[in-house]
Design goal:
By secondary structure, the chain is of the alpha+beta class. The chain has a single domain, classed as Aminohydrolase, N-terminal nucleophile (Ntn) domain (Glutamine Phosphoribosylpyrophosphate, subunit 1, domain 1). The protein contains 5 helices and 12 strands. It has a 5-stranded antiparallel sheet with strand order 10-1-2-11-12, covered by helices on one side. The protein has a 5-stranded antiparallel sheet with strand order 5-6-7-8-9, covered by helices on one side. A two-stranded antiparallel ribbon has the order 3-4. Strand 11 and strand 12 form a beta hairpin. The longest helix is centred in the middle third of the chain and has 22 residues. The protein starts with 18 loop residues before the first strand and ends with a helix.
């Protein structure tokens, strides 16, 4: 009898991009750059890396574009199934666990931050390429993350409100752009609170930067 050999996942650290997630007293702030690279080529200057899954859950994505887009579409569908089956909207922890199961079962080249509101509680999870899940108060991913952490560790304090954290998250990504060639172009920011998901207009972000 023959045997099936499953291809091992490539667990090399993902290169390119800087994404930031921060838990605030009233919500979650997510920030990313907008550069997509193919080796030394800047393939896109306007790559979208932050998405809403529901009106109270959002992702940031780092990794293969096709993989991350498929994961976003899958989780939007899963959120709809969850709401129909359970009779309540999917919460952040359930979203992270389902995503972890998908990542653990199939080969997706992606790291994701999953943030949002569980009732009145803001939560943030990191889901890595092999399906590992860690809940954090503040995290950065991607090749520019060491630089971004320098800003976050210095300026962020637990208990801050979203309006206080947004400028810090923008500075973290902008600082990474100065030192990491795979991070660049524009900053994108999304905020999730009890009022729902919203993305900041580019003109507002430029004022903060």
């Amino acid at each position: 009898m023959g045997c099936i050999v499953l291809e091992e996942k490539n667990l090399e650290p993902l290169k390119g991009t800087t994404t930031v997630g921060v838990v605030c007293s009233d919500g979650v702030v997510l920030a990313t750059d907008s550069r997509a690279t193919m080796g030394y080529l800047v393939a896109s200057k306007k790559a979208k890396k932050v998405y809403s899954i529901t009106d109270r859950i959002a992702f940031t994505t780092a990794g293969g574009v096709a993989d991350t887009e498929q994961l976003v579409n899958m989780m939007r569908a899963e959120a709809g199934y969850y709401a129909m089956h359970e009779g309540v909207p999917m919460n952040v922890s359930a979203c992270a666990k389902i995503l972890s199961n998908i990542m653990n079962s199939y080969i997706y080249y992606a790291n994701l931050l999953v943030g949002g509101m569980d009732e009145d509680t803001p939560r943030l999870f990191f889901v890595d390429v092999d399906g590992g899940v860690i809940e954090e108060k503040m995290i950065a991913t991607g090749s520019g993350s060491p630089v971004a952490y320098g800003v976050l560790e210095t300026e962020f304090k637990e208990g801050m409100r979203t309006e206080e954290v947004v400028p810090i998250a923008v500075r973290a990504v902008k600082t990474a752009m100065k030192r990491d060639i795979a991070t660049g172009n524009e900053v994108m920011v999304a905020i999730v609170t009890k009022k729902g998901y919203r993305e900041l207009p580019p003109e507002d972000i430029k004022k903060l930067a």
